[in-house]
Design brief:
The complex is a heterotrimer of chains A (80), B (180) and C (753). Chain A is an alpha+beta fold and 80 residues long. Chain A contains two helices and five strands, in the order ββααβββ. Chain A has a five-stranded mixed sheet with strand order 2-1-5-3-4. In chain C, helix 11 packs parallel to helix 18 and helix 12 runs antiparallel to helix 13. Chain C is an alpha+beta fold and 753 residues long. In chain C, the strands form six sheets. A seven-stranded mixed sheet of chain C has the order 3-5-1-12-9-10-11, with helices on both faces. Chain C has a six-stranded mixed sheet with strand order 7-15-14-13-8-27, sandwiched between helices. The chains are: A alpha+beta (80), B alpha/beta (180), C alpha+beta (753). Chains in contact: A-C, B-C. Chains B and C meet through helix 2, helix 3, helix 4 and helix 5 of B and helix 1 and helix 17 of C.
Amino acid sequence: MQVAVTGLLCTAVNGAASINIEADTIRELLRKLVERYPKFEPLLDAGVAVVINGEIFRDNWSEPIPAGAEVVLMPRIQGG
Amino acid sequence: MSGVHVSTTINGDPVEFVCQPGEVLLDVLRNRVGLTGAKEGCGTGDCGTCSVTVDGRLVCSCLVLGAEVEGRTVTTVEGMADGADLHPLQKKFIEHAALQCGICTPGFLVAAKALLDRNPDPSEEQIRYALAGNLCRCTGYDKIVRAVQAAAKDLAVDATKPAKPAPKKTTAGKSAKKTA
Amino acid sequence: MTHNPSFTNQTFKVIGTRVPRPDGLDKVTGRARYGADASAPGQLVGMILRSPHAHAEIKNIDTSKADKIPGVKAIITSADLPDKVNGRRDMLDTLENCMARGRVLYDGHAIAAVAAIDADTAKKALKAIKVDYKILPHVTDVDEAMKDGAPIVQQWVRTAGGDANKATNVSQVSQFGHGNIEEGFAEADVIIERSYKTEQTHQGYIEPHACLASVGPDGNGELWVTTQGHYTFRTQCAQLLGMDIAKLKVTSSEIGGGFGGKTHVWMEPVALALSRKANRPVKLVMTREEVFRATGPTCSTSMDVKIGAKKDGRITAALAVLRYQDGAFPGIWGMLGGMTAWACYDLPNVKAIAYDVLVNRPKVAAYRAPSAPMAAFAVESTMDLVAQAINMDPVDFRLLNAAKEGTRASYGPTYGPIGIRATLEAVKNHPQMKAKLGPNQGRGMACGFWFNFGGQTCSTVNICTDGTVNVSVGTVDVGGSRASLSLIAAEELGVPYETVKCTVSDTTALGHNDTTEGSRGTFSSGMAIIFAARNAVAELRARAAKTWDIPVEEVEWKDGVAYPMGDQHHNLKPLSLKDIAAKSPRTGGPIAGHNETVADGAGVSFASHICDVEVDPETGATRILRYAVVQDAGKAIHPDYVEGQFQGAAAQGIGWALNEEYVYGKDGRLQNAGFLDYRIPVCSDLPFIDTTILEIPNPGHPYGIRGVGETSIVPPLAAIGNAVSNAVGVRMNHVPMSPPRILKAIKAQRAAG
């Protein structure tokens, strides 16, 4: 599936705006990303959020990724 | 260290305390008398969260020395309710959701009461200017002003009713509270 | 978490009613206890010595004289706060911000701290501490800090993704967007390009930071503190002090305002370290001056915005370049501005480039929809200029380009059902739009966007034997959420609101709860309570089944009562929650429901504001005549408190737009660290603030709740800028639009012709 990569996270995937990767859950997606792109690991530690079909997930890495879902990787952000 | 001995009346009760000459009334109330309703928001008289009345006059207790209330009467937010009966201002603040975090609420209640005591039928503009010395960061003042307007109406209605019997006063002198 | 999306037509029994809040009585009688209202036997007064220099090396700290003062029980420096963070840069930054490590990075940076028997002794001790500084060049302006040759704030900082060898003040550059903006601008009939600046502001909570810390030699500690997240504080303090998390019990006092500024520890680790050294409780309360100088204000910014559009109003390209200063440590606030800048619009070609820059100022913290208000000021001001250039009504222009369900957001994902169009339609039809305007009066409007977040949340629902209910939550109540959370529990259980008591528990009673930020308090704890209550209902049904000796599948729960299902049970009397609770000791013991959840799937939130102003052309002073807020809340659990959030956020935005700013001198010192000269709105500055709550349900929540607390601080800066422009014909590009700035602009315009 296509995963859009935004912001600084692009630097970890060689500048690509989107990558092709298969995963059933957020956890699996992030694990595979680190395996394929080691530069992703420090950014993961700094914090990422995964947006599935428009919903922002910051912590729930068990969240399943339905087939055909739009997946976007975003920096982890907070409010005030 | 040479303390100053002060005899005063707080919320209708006789109170004695010893404080430092340079100690402000706010610190005396909070640290010596145990009345933490008045808060320190700035310590420089700019925010009004320390508002109390001294001899009926609205003051910032962070700008009044503890020693200055010798022989005077002090009223704080803790003295507004009549036992379990809330003052109409207190009731209306809750009803109109005029508080969010509530830190400014004691100051506003004291200031609003001081306003209504001298001007029972204030216009919106008069309310806003009378309360301009009290900062609120949560509400935007909208519901506070509405609560004061509602309380003023309530008090006006109360004023036409027969007076309630005066509350019993505590006996002075021998049973005066001593705090050092 | 699965839920049925067809809940839009849910009818509620108590949700949406305006009930009195449970903590109201304590707050109007002065009984409520905030951070500075607790005391412990034997407590010491803690005080902090702070740097009078913006940037300096600490050559030596001599505490010998101070040590000898009778009544001084402990003095600490960074030597007493060793690095236990295991290489985590962000925690080391927090530690260094709490207490300087060899160098000071901003005016007000903590250098040492004392604990003494009273305030006077503590003050004496601070005076007696001798510090040798080597003063270094400083930089406080974001644009200056980016220039070659600017003093470097942190020697180790490199631009993330950039040159690994060059020391710099730019900690990262991030980009968001899609399409091809060069092509987009080429297609445009009209292009407007402008630059803007906003000055630094503070959350301005009326309650200064305060805590009562107590650490014993056995590694057990207690902390009473005003905070937006006592569990987060527990984790941070335990890590910084090398304590076991479970052994540090943190209790949240009532909080006197936070708005993001109390999501971060500033002096709490210092209080704990003092207490540990002195082996006595230490009460540490910040003065207002310290709050301004040494907590976490928001960024000051410098921004460039360029919009290209066709004559028919369709935007063809949009570019924002944002430069945000994060204070003396790396931050992500510029990036966040870049993500929000174009979020209101459906744009084919869009780009935001954001710089995060270090300067010798305090470490920036979140302030209500952090980073969004500044970017929105730049974007929404330019939107009005484009609308003017093509002779189109500003609301219609925005409607034409507004995002909708299916729009690809400028920050990446595709939107689900959202409320921006609905808010714009409501603004268009708002009665304020028809109010007559006189001389020097003008009307402006603007939109705003903010994310809402979920997060780790735990909740317990306990049914007492008399049928009343205790609800324990871990999200700090910043604005009245206990009322809403009690409503939710009452709704789920089917009991009257008055029988539910909601408490914010200390850290030993529940699992970790994330901070109350990102407008998540009611959303997240509400979700956890729904599931905890449903958990409890399952148990209540089981008890009824046991009592009747029938299978639990044949028990239904409706409006607080268990009913046996099926004609064969027609002789069984229904059991209310009260009945079941009374019998609970003999049917299996106490009845409770728990939920530990990660409440994710929070919706996004949009708002549109209308502002009418009158500008005095002789003084440049601006008076707000009328103000209206329209915002999408998903579902308003307690409408009074939703309105309160709209009004409070708008008021902060108004202060930011018109008066509030940090003024730094050439010496790099903060000049106006007090409420007299840091001028926030007072009661006489504002009119009544009209509010309209729209309810476009959020599919990610069982009741459709969206976070509401933050979004309405985003539109005011531009709404007022646009109103001033329409009032006196000057376009303000520098916030705050204080009287001297407006006057200068008016005079410049007169001089120009």
